[in-house]
Each structure stands twice: as C-alpha cells, then as structure tokens.
Amino acid sequence: MSVIIDSFPSSNGRYQADYAIVAVDVIRASTTVVTAATLGRKCFPVTSVEEALQKRAELPDCLLAGEVAGIKPDGFDLNNSPSHLARRTDVHRPLVLLSSSGTKLMVQSGATGAAYVACLRNYKAVAAHIGNRHERIALLGAATQGEFREEDQLCCAWIANELRRFGHQPENQRTLNLIEQWRRASARACATGNSAAYLRRSNQLDDLNFVLAHVNDVPLACQLVNGEVLPITVISELPRPKPPAARRRLAA
C-alpha cells in the first residue's frame, strides 16, 4: 500500500485510474466544503461561473458561494468563506461552490474514481476512513498561481503521516520529505504563507482565524459522488493491530 503527495494542476489526470484521490485546498475551498457538510448542508463544487449559474437553475434555492481570482462574482451570495458560511442559519439551502483552483481539483478528482475532500478540520477522519479501503492514495493540493502552498503541504503531510499507521508507504522521496518537513508542525504554520498574506491584505482575517481555530474537530470523511459532496461519519476506524508474532519480531 502506498501514498503520494502532489499538487494540481501539474498532476492533471496522472492519478485518475489507480488511486483514491484526496483533494486539499485548506485556504479556503476544502475548509468551506467540510464546513458545509458539518452543518448538514448539501454541497456541489463547480468549475466556472457559468456552471454555477446553471446549477442555480436546477436548484433555485441554492446558495452561490465562491471567487474568481479572489473576487466574488456578480450574482453570488457570498465569497469562498468558511467563516461566513458557518454563521449562516439557512442550512436547508444547498451550497454551490466555485474557487479558482480547489473546486476544479475536486470536480476532476471525482469524475472517474474514488475521491474525497480534506482540510485541517477532518484530516484524521479522512485518513481513518480511507486507510483500510484503498491500496494507493494520492493527496493533491490545489496549487494557487502554480504554487503548492504551505497550508496544503502541511495538510497532505499530516494525512500521509496518519496513513503510514495503516501501512501506506511513501511512493517517492518528495512525499517522504514533505511528511518529515510538516508532520510535527503546528497549524500556525499556515499563517506564514502567501494564502494567509492575501487574506490579510484583503481584510479577510476571519477566514484565516477560522482555519487555525478548527483543527481535527470534524469526524467526517467527505466523498465526492456524482458531483456532490457526501459526508461519511467516522466513529472509530483505527489501524488494524499487528499480530503478536509480528510485534515480537519488531521488538527483538
């Protein structure tokens, strides 16, 4: 069993056939998606403004959220903001979410095989759910302007480190290096990169604070199925214990 860390779109299509894919865009799309699922809100990632408006025609009561190059498109109800979404009470309204990179990764990942959405809120739940279900797992960060951002490296590395407890081995040196670089890091490391700097410049610190304040607090593995994010409650799925003989050999 193996795990690999890579980034989108440079990974475009590389892992579709043989891997379960975990889409990660901590700041902010995957955090928004997981927050929606936590609230019991249906969620549909899309790849363009046109697709979002088409979805609104199908679901007239939906909530349009998202950004293009950081700007909320005309006619949308709110930005790609997990903190703003968490404060809303209209949870009966399905969320249609668009982001510059993250939702594109989600849609492509869910098109042909097993795909999940992860952020810092549910990284352990995702690892626990997929660890014994998939032989090969690709953890893909949604690169912004071609950059594999620190917060996504950290989240992917945390998930990969959890997966090692299930027997998944890093497929390449880069994956191993990222695990070693980030596995002991604090979530505060997310506050130092370009994504966090953008939120500061654009007076959207509520979202940065939300990300940093919500770590491993959601027992949901969010799976992409037919264009929708479906929450799966993870109660307790720990690695299978090694048989006694194997433990004795390791201790010898």
**CATH level 1 name:** Alpha Beta
CATH domain fold name: putative 2-phosphosulfolactate phosphatase
Binned strand content:
15-25%
Query: What is the CA–CA distance across the termini?
Result: 25 Å
Overall structural domain count: 1
Global structural class: alpha/beta
DSSP helix count? 10
Order of helices and strands: EEHEHEHEHEHEHEHHHEEH
State the share of residues found in helices, binned by percent.
25-40%
Give the strand order of the largest sheet, numbering strands 1, 2, ... along the chain. 8-1-7-2-6-9-10
Number of strands: 10
* Largest beta-sheet details: 7 strands, mixed
| Overall geometry | globular
CATH architecture descriptor text: Alpha-Beta Complex
CATH superfamily, please?
Answer: ComB-like
Radius of gyration using CA atoms only: 18 Å
Mean pLDDT: 91
- Residue ranges: pLDDT <50 for 5 or more in a row? 241-252
Could you give a quick summary of the protein structure above?
The protein is of the alpha/beta class. The protein is built from 10 helices and 10 strands.
